[in-house]
Write a structure and sequence with these properties.
The protein is built from 11 helices and 15 strands. The chain has 3 domains: 3-103, DNA Primase, Chain A (Alpha-Beta Complex), CATH 3.90.580; 110-177, no CATH class; 183-284, Dna Topoisomerase Vi A Subunit, Chain: A, domain 2 (3-Layer(aba) Sandwich). It is globular. It is an alpha+beta fold. The protein has helices at 3-7, 11-17, 68-76, 80-89, 104-107, 122-130, 135-141, 198-207, 230-234, 247-260, 277-284, and strands at residues 25-26, 30-33, 46-49, 56-59, 64-66, 111-117, 143-149, 152-160, 166-169, 174-177, 183-185, 191-195, 216-219, 238-242, 264-266.
């Protein structure tokens, strides 16, 4: 089973068969369940959207989201290869979603970017305000994207990556459009700062504005992309990491230090009481 086949599975069915699904609040296009990441929570905070070609999930308790492959990367604390191995070893027989049985020549037309512009739509500005992300800084690195997906039109904040793809965010959606990849922001420096997400990167620039052009910045957009880019990272003389305070972030920090030794410095201690840099910004500033 490959990545596209895994993403084509019905996530609700996967969670039901693996006993991870509890307390359903269900409509035709939306499902709310108790988060598999926090099985003891009392109010469902894990949302599955059925309006896209693939199921898109978002966990409001930890800010994670994506397609099925992303869920298993986070849940199993592994990478893409680990997820593929997991599905190979566990003979899942879930039905693919019948509503979206596209032929290969149809898949090319499943989305269309309508326009990119400066962020100005009120819901997006409000979303940034809730996360304490200054609009002035965000507009330097992100755009407001309007796009059509499966014949429906949406808009969101778009953060570009190195493969001309976009990390798409608004209050309800966390996904990647076009192709998943890292975002490397070059200032012709030999020192690199690494972040998991663009929101942590923007948070850092707000907290330390004088650093904006003193370093190169690598935003992974998925912790699973760290290993793939270790050669690029190793080209820098010094590397400073700002990963999440969770198992995946700690594992990533340990991996970096094992691979690149003294070149790596973990700079996450100043937000040690929070999950990530953006959460620190929200509650401390």
């Amino acid at each position: 089973m490959n990545i596209n086949e895994i993403n084509s599975l019905d996530l609700e069915q996967i969670l039901t068969k693996t006993y991870l699904l509890k307390s359903i609040k269900k409509t035709e296009k939306s499902i709310w369940v108790i988060s598999p990441f926090r099985p003891n929570e009392s109010t469902p905070s894990f949302h599955i959207s059925k309006i896209y070609k693939y199921d898109i999930w978002f966990d409001h308790g930890n800010g994670l989201g994506g397609k099925n492959i992303d869920f298993f990367i986070y849940y199993l604390k592994t990478d893409v290869k680990g997820v593929l191995k997991y599905f190979k070893e566990n003979s899942f027989s879930f039905q693919k979603q019948n509503d979206f049985q596209f032929k290969k020549n149809q898949i090319k037309n499943e989305y269309k970017i309508l326009k990119l512009k400066e962020i100005s739509s009120f819901p997006l500005v409000q979303y940034l305000e809730e996360r304490k992300l200054p609009l002035e800084i965000v507009n330097r690195y992100c755009k407001e994207i309007h796009y059509k997906l499966n014949q429906k039109t949406y808009y969101a904040i778009a953060f570009p990556n190195n493969e001309n793809g976009y990390e798409i965010r608004n209050k309800y959606v966390k996904m990647c459009l076009v192709k998943k990849d890292i975002s490397l922001i070059k200032n012709n420096q030999n020192q690199l700062k690494i972040f998991e997400s663009w929101s942590d990167f923007i948070s850092y620039l707000f907290l330390f504005p004088t650093d904006e052009f003193l370093y190169d910045f690598l935003i992974l957009n998925s912790i699973a992309l760290l290993r793939k880019n270790i050669e690029l990272i190793n080209k820098y003389q010094t590397i400073q990491s700002y990963f999440d305070h969770d198992d995946a972030g700690e594992s990533a920090t340990k991996f970096l230090k094992n691979e690149l030794k003294t070149k790596v410095k973990d700079n996450s201690s100043f937000y040690k009481n929070y999950k990530d840099l953006n959460e620190y910004l929200i509650f401390e500033k």
